Amino acid sequence: MADLKAMALILGGMLLAFPALASPVCATDDLGKEICLEQPAQRIAALSPGATELAWAAGAGDQVVAVVAYSDYPPAAKEVTSVGSHTRMDMERLLELQPDLVIGWVTGNPTEQLATLREMGVPVFSIEPRSFEAVSDTIERLSILAGTEAAGFAEADRFRKGITDLRARFSGADTVPVFYQVWDEPLMTVNRDHLIGEMIELCGGDNVFGHLERLVPRISAEAVIAANPEAILAGGMGEENRHWLTRWQSFPSLTATERNNLFFIPPSLVQRPTPRMLEGTRLFCEKLEVARDRRP
């Protein structure tokens, strides 16, 4: 009898030591839906390049079995099976890979395809980080669902600290009127509520189109000329394509052109809500420092 009691105590202690074996893992997505898995995800499908980067940031790169076009970072992501683009997935191919978690993009993936996955019982965790803090928070939530909390929470903290340090460094910087070009044809920018808008503000920039209502508004070249930004920053179709800045060289009366404050920023460092935004923000802040130094 004593041996049975001792064994019961041992088994009870083991169950207390390994609660994850008996409990599901849960996290709430950016649609406010709680997603629960019976066990941490082992076969993850990331349906945007940003989601792919965030899965790796969460420490779950080895569990990613499906990505979409332009999922080019980290380099290992290029070796993962592609299931189409973020705007149209090959559903048959995706389901053949038997994902136990799909990371969806709230405004980027087709709602009907995500709905189909949910109807078939595939867990879909929808994300769309719109602030620096949301980037860290998303990494943490993904790491919970993937069972990689140690790596994910460490990366989230690293990103938070980096952003906090930059914010302190540039908190007293002189304001620089800025136009950020997010697309060329049609000409598009971002408002102050966009994550890039937060980046501009952190670096001491004044987004000349920050007041516009739409998150990613269309504008005209005439509107840029009228706003007369002191610095123009742009990405392009690719990491080395700087031609979007060429058009502004034909407007010598623009302050940004006159002072040679036309700066290229690799788009993947700025336009994907991932930890690489820390590097992009540092670069953005450095460009605005150059603009300050060029003042007469």
TrEMBL record:
PROSITE patterns named in the record: FE_B12_PBP
Pfam families assigned: Peripla_BP_2
SUPFAM superfamilies noted in UniProt: Helical backbone' metal receptor
Annotated coiled-coil segments of the chain: none
Fe/B12 periplasmic-binding domain segment(s): 43-292
Signal peptide: 1-22
Keywords linked to the UniProt accession: Signal
Biological process per Gene Ontology, one example term: cellular response to iron ion
Keyword Signal: yes
Name recorded for this polypeptide: Iron complex transport system substrate-binding protein
Natural source organism: Marinobacter nauticus
